[in-house]
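Page 42, continued from yesterday. The earlier attempt failed because a stray header line got pasted into the input along with the sequence. Redoing it now with the clean sequence only.
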Amino acid sequence: MDKLIINGGKPLFGSIEINGAKNAAVAILPAAILASKGNCIIDNIPNIEDVHCIERILKSLGCSIKTNKNCATIDSTTITSLSANTDDVRKMRASYYLIGALLGRFKKAKVELPGGCPIGVRPIDQHIKGFEALGAKVKIMHGSVLVEADELIGTNIFFDVVSVGATINVMLAATLAKGVTTLENVAKEPHVVDVANFLNSMGANIKGAGTDVIRIVGVENLTGCSYSVIPDQIEAGTYMIASAACGGEVTIQNVIPKHLESISAKLVEMGSEIIEDGDSLTVKSNGRLKGVNIKTQPYPGFPTDVQQPMSTLLTVAKGRSIINESIWESRFKHVDELKKMGANIKVEGRTAIIDGVDKLTGAVVKATDLRAGAAMVIAGLIAEGTTEVLSIEHIDRGYPNIEDKFKAVGADIVRVYE
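This time it went through. Structure tokens are written below.
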């Protein structure tokens, strides 16, 4: 498999442009299934493996898809199958959005249970609760989720836990349900809002996305539309952290600064300077930063998806830092890799205690999952000597052209094809 070879210790200067949001794109593409006429033209799609996976799955269902750079034109009027059972379905988490989309439009679906990064138990019980509340019968048989309904009827649904996946999935199913659906205790992440905006562009009637309550008035049908995916909050946060870790001055372009406030606040607390200018942020850092305490929380709190990159920065910050991972119970698998490079980290359950060291040293490490991979790249960038990052197929799932973006701002990083 490919690997990244990094010679660390170089400050970064220049600009990095952020792609469309992975977590929005992998939900918006399946949502196009809901259009019973017309094409969905979706722009600013990131060139990553998870997106290509979804596109292949949609084609296996009979959708016609034409792609041109970061734009996809989807015709879902040609769907011939309501069963998603390919290898692509099994290897990515977001394939469960096919359930809500197919159920919403066709009142029936069969989708194999999803895969994704091994960062903890991620049940779909809240998804099932929502589908059943709308009137669907749900069975799990032979590793697949089977859903079917004579009709979907709007109702009030209170989620037991805040879940991005369940919020989006039930929202997809409810757009064409009869009457009004009210979703309470919902996720408020930017990509939830983006999916709602996309559905509204298709003719849905959804209000309240981004708040605690989403209200959906069912409509008769949805039609194709043109839409542009929001910038990727997590990609932007990762490059902000990398810039602060390496030192120098990097402008992160094509971002929505409000989505990044929790990350900016922590970097400023550590001693970095953040300059906001329209749709860009400049990160300035000079000298060793100081440690901070972090607790991951649903939006607008500190994102769990940048906890691992941030933990790398904290390994070389002054003093002690404590990370409380409140979202996923297995999101410290990268710690053993950081220890190979000299990090001083102790993990107790969902808490990591980090005592900053003067420097990390290069080593052969692996990406244990998507965001852990980004963390190891940052570790290589700040380490003394050469670092090899293996299993980078995980990184490619969420970071388009990561080595090219870092090269452009002065990093010594190369991809080796094996």
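Notes: The two ends are 5 Å apart (CA to CA).
Reminder to self: strip header lines before submitting.
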